[in-house]
Amino acid sequence: MALVESLQKAIDYMEQHLLEHPSIEAIAQQANVSPFHFQRMFLILTDLSVGEYLRCRRLTLAAQELIKSDHKIIDLAYKYGYDTPEAFTKAFRKQHGVSPSDARKGIGKLQSHNRLVIQVNLKGAEPMNYQIIEKDAFQVVGIKRECPCGEQGGVAGIPEFWSEVNANGTADRLAQLLNGDIKGLLGITNNYNEDNNTIDYWIATEHTGEEPGDFAVLDFPKSKWVMFEVQGSAPTAMPEAWRQIYTEWIPSNGYEVADIPAIEAYTAPDPYRADASNQIWLAVK
């Protein structure tokens, strides 16, 4: 099944089971990809995590029902997955800017998060430079941290993690261990945690030989990889490249995403420069 059709099938499944709190495993199964890769694709394409989308859709439907019916607020709270009216009111106010009681009175404006429809337009697509590489099993060494998906107020995320690693000398130590085929420092995402809406994020380097005792090790199996060249300042060029991969390259080629963590390789001396050249490595099957 084509990627676009698979994603739409998964979105339709979410809509059909909104009030049943479907698991990420059940949703990803509709798209025929792993839970981790589905969450990654969904976040890149929509700027929302799966959990955020489900929550926003429930609160949109709750607001519609609130103003169209005389159902008690406590009953709506339970229907849409909140244990207490207070929790429902807090979430409702965060999304809509007004309390449920004020919304029922017609005070303030409501914010509607509409049902998603995935569309892909391949006309005029920018060309992508890539290389298919058969790579034997290898390992990377580095450090990992549980980081939030999307923005969570007051919680340090991936940019802060990189700043810390660059400032405390860890990046330099990892660079000295590099002796594999994939050059540069690597950013690797893995293990989506549905309950916490987080992922494990690695900052690492490919290394063969004796394992350094103070770094963790992540093993990769033998696989076929697509290496994409990414031109431009990393903070903007990397997300744009991922969108192009998922919306243009994969639908246009006969590959599926393998259940292996993807790799961002920061090969440029200064990844922030406008003329920087970095890489994305995506395992396929």
TrEMBL record:
Cleaved signal peptide residues: none
Keywords assigned by UniProt, alphabetized: DNA-binding, Transcription, Transcription regulation
Molecular functions per Gene Ontology: DNA-binding transcription factor activity; sequence-specific DNA binding
Presence of the UniProt keyword DNA damage in the record: no
InterPro entries noted in UniProt: AraC_E-bd, GyrI-like, Homeodomain-like_sf, HTH_AraC, HTH_AraC-typ_CS, MarA-like, Reg_factor_effector_dom_sf, Tscrpt_reg_AraC-type_HTH
Domain HTH araC/xylS-type: 8-106
SUPFAM superfamilies on file: Homeodomain-like (SSF46689), Probable bacterial effector-binding domain (SSF55136)
Top-level taxonomic group: Bacteria
The protein, known as: AraC family transcriptional regulator
Organism this protein belongs to: Planococcus salinus
